[in-house]
Amino acid sequence: MKLNHAAILIALSSALVMCHKSSDVKAPKPLSVETTEAGVTLRVSTANSEIRVGDPLRVVVEVDRGVDTSVTMPNFSKNVGNFEVRASAPLAKNPAFPERVAEQLTLITFESGEKIQVPPFEVVVRDGAGKEITLKSPPLDIAVQSRLEGQFNPAAFRDIKDAVDVPLETQWAWIIGVCVLIAVLSIGAYRWWFHKPSGPVYIEAPHERALRELDELAARQLPNKGLVLDFYVLLSDTVRHYVEGRFGICAPEQTTKEFLAAARHHPQIIDDHQRLLASFLRAADMVKYAAQRPGPNECDRGLDAARGFVLESLPTDNSAPHAPTSEATSEARL
User: Fold this and answer.
1) Count of the separate structural domains present in the chain
2) Which residue of 26, 38, 108, 146 lies most exposed, with the fewest beta carbons within 10 A?
């Protein structure tokens, strides 16, 4: 029994508290304005005419028309006075009023005041005979309550305080600390930038460079474009640079005669390679200096001959690329 009595008391107390809270909440205050002309009624209404700043205000615009009458509603995409239009949508047909046209707007304002007006709306009505009339609704007065408590009073704010004196010892401590930090960061950045380990540098071997340049030259297809002279200039330069790096003969600075004479006395250039070089370089000279223009097939054979010379003269384990010899050394060998 005691438990039942306690439960009843708790329930009654909760009911009293809820009733007290509900009495503090203001009941919605609907508001409606309308105008009528030629049997057509324009009505603007809201379910609650008292809101707070930022709360949505739902406004319904209704037009009661006659049969065979068309209605042009306002453009609700723009802001309405001090209210922002957040949404607008037509309402479903009411079976009790089949000729009624209605739309609902969702408005929001950040202004506060006893009378924040929703401006008048204008609709255009056209009857079956083509006659038009314009209806304009009265404004809708909305009470918008601020979310701030009380009235704004500028004098209620505290004045700006005077500047606070910082002890000189504290200032010097900050200055010294900042200088030390800048110095440490500067030294670290210097050591990182100028002493960072460099990655391994790959040095391309003479035959690797020559084969790569020959492949690139073949891909350009210069003879097919009519650039036979350019083709042979690049081809002979590739071979001469290869000979310079592989055998130590300054081929790019020598004439063909000087180069062949130096190659003839080189111990690592065999007779077959000497004859191949002589044939190849003389053919290149005929193109460069005698205006001969061989066809693409003959250019391909020259490219194959250069590639074959590089592959056949690859360095062995006991041989290595030589440093280029000077012109005086070449002449001495002659």
Assistant:
1) 2
2) 26
